[in-house]
Write a structure and sequence with these properties.
Blueprint lengths: L2 H64 L7 H7 L2 E4 L3 E4 L11 E10 L5 H6 L1 H12 L9 H20 L6 E9 L1
Antiparallel strand pairs: 1-3, 2-3, 3-4
Helix pairs in contact: 1-2, 4-5
Amino acid sequence: MAKKPKKASAEPGEGGADAAPKSKKKLIIIAAAALLVVVGGGAGFFLMKGGSSVAKDGDGAAQASSHGGGGHGGGSEAKKQIAFIELREMIINLSPDAGQDKGKFAKLRVSLEMKDPKLEEEVKSLAPRIEDTLQMYMREIRASDLAGSVGVYRLREELLKRVNVAVYPAKVDAVLFKDLIIQ
């Protein structure tokens, strides 16, 4: 029986020696993972912070150029990068809502925003096609489809899709509402 306690005491000693390298491996793996998380988090923060500061600088530059400040030509170049094309006012019959005999009317004035001013003349020459596309789509809409800001947002997105099909290969970046009245 005396020999058995010695073996038992010897095994934990040997196990303790084996456990030490295993625990060191675990400690190294945990430390490496923690370091990876810290470095990754720092890099992510740096990238996010860097991206937002660039946007702030861009907005600041745009604001400075819109106020006519600055003696260099950088502000005028920023203004030339965007072109707006105003379409004529349209009055359109909307489809009647369920249970109604008569539809309502929509008065619509929009501007098209383009980031490539070189294509402005090409898009202006396609204005009749754009207006036809808008009118054909708007005649299928009911006044209830335009209720609230969500309805107007959906309308803007649908009009943008259809305008881009009408002016392809040119590209319009936004449809901006100047007037939208429903009666």
